[in-house]
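Ticket #4471: structure export looks truncated?
Reporter: QA, pipeline team
Priority: medium

Steps to reproduce: submit the single chain below to the structure queue and open the exported record.
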Amino acid sequence: MKKYYNISTFLIFGVFSILTTFYFPYLNQEVGLSLSEVGRVVSVGALFTIIAQPILSNIFSKVKNKNKFIIVYLFGVLISIVGLMFINKDLAIIYAPIYGAMLASVAGIFEIYIEELSIKSKLEFSDVRKWGSIGYACVVFLSGLILNKFGFRILHIIAIVIICTMIFIIINKFKDDIEIKEEKDHPKFIDLFKNKNIVLLIIVIFLGIGSYMGLDFAYSSYLVDLVNDVEKANQIYSFSISLRVVVEFFSFLIVSKYLINANSKKCLTIALVVAAIKVLLLSTGNIALVVLGDQLHGIMYGLYLSFLFKYLREIISSELVATSFSVLSVLSSGGANFIYPSIYSYIQGDYGYFGMYIFVFISIVISTIIFILFLPSKKKVLN
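Actual output as written to the record:
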């Protein structure tokens, strides 16, 4: 079964790369929105990702037949991609909630799914998830070549074909894994906020990882500012992003092989420290150090994602893990994209890129201190 988990993870992150990497240029170049209009559409979509992903994850945690849930969800994704192909300037803002709720949530929902399957099959989540990084990198690279020759429509058709392939694999190859034990007590969303550890972890992730992830929107423009050459900056950007995905793959690989029994809290602390170091390197304004710093993201993300699941299973009951992870996921992605860019734009306007990066460095340091001092480190026995 492991090979089918790997193939499915490779494919779904390939779809996710098409839906996210090429969404902004699609709105701008194909649909014809101005940059400010794109910003509004993206913000609306991010808001609905924040709302929808925890709800979908909570439903997932309650249903007995996990495979059926994913199949139904993927059919919804397929229909949403078809709709995305036909939006125009007037419909873009109206369609944004569908994009945010269904398409931008794909990676988060599937990560929860493969984590459940990995636990059931006694596999390491990181050993499966690493293929998602390669799928993302390969499809982005190939999609860029295809886009130049055939346009955006063919990318969406490729995404539809991949989703159909995913549904076929799950229906025909995941038969032994259809039934996953149903929890007696179904969790409620409000239960998360009754748990002190989750509340503290929400603060840590939003303040540390969220502020860190929110910087991505400025990376391209920062490179242009540093080299004063748009074409050269784009080349550096493409090289840097591609390389860090490869680093991310090896990070997951190392975790699955050598860090299976490592202390989850210590590894998450290291992830936060690595994030802080990356931000410091970015603040230097030296191209070599900036690109080097960007590669640290691969190390940070491999540790963060692998051990966040492990840590959640150690500090809360299992029925709350899926919903908790989803909330933390949107706070570090959709929430970050919804809130932080406007803050950073204001700081950058007054204090430059250096001031912006130092602000984020301080945020990560504060979140790390909270995490070390106030969250438990020893594994608890949970019923």
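Status: closed, not a bug. The export was complete when the record was re-opened. Leaving a note from the reviewer for reference: The chain has a mean pLDDT of 86.
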